[in-house]
Amino acid sequence: MYKNRLQEYTQKSSLQLPVYQTFNEGPAHMPRFRSTVWVDGAQYTSQKTFLHRKAAEQDAANLALESILKRVKDEECPLLDAETVFCKSILNEFAVKVNREKPTYNSVQLPGPLPIFTSTLVFDGVSYTGDAGRNKKEAEQLAARKVILGQRKLFIK
Fold this sequence. Notes:
Layout: H1 2-12, E1 19-24, E2 33-39, E3 42-45, H2 53-74, H3 78-82, H4 87-97, E4 104-110, E5 116-123, E6 126-129, H5 136-150, H6 152-155
Antiparallel strand pairs: 1-2, 2-3, 4-5, 5-6
Helix pairs in contact: 1-2, 4-5
């Protein structure tokens, strides 16, 4: 149920689908599963362990959904915060409009079992590092979003 709702949310928001990683923390004869889900550059890990892998994944998805919905509700501009797909374009257009140099990006892949990237950008002489993304493009969008949210008063008029 929660996995379906989380997948529907990511599709409606034009985000990459959630990625789950589940581990058995118990002995082979008595497994105890804990799951982590990555969504929009953030990770959510089930607090408890479960007898079944599916239950652990559902718990992690529920945790992610609750966190995302709370964040969207609490923030002033949920569309800008939820939609990262346009952030680079918005930032580039803003730079042209105010006659500033376009931002430069430096993206790196973090070590680990899953491909996770971070991106740092320089805009107007200041460095900004975005949240982690599942690919280079997403990491750059998240870095651009960091600039936009940090300079919200300049962008929203």
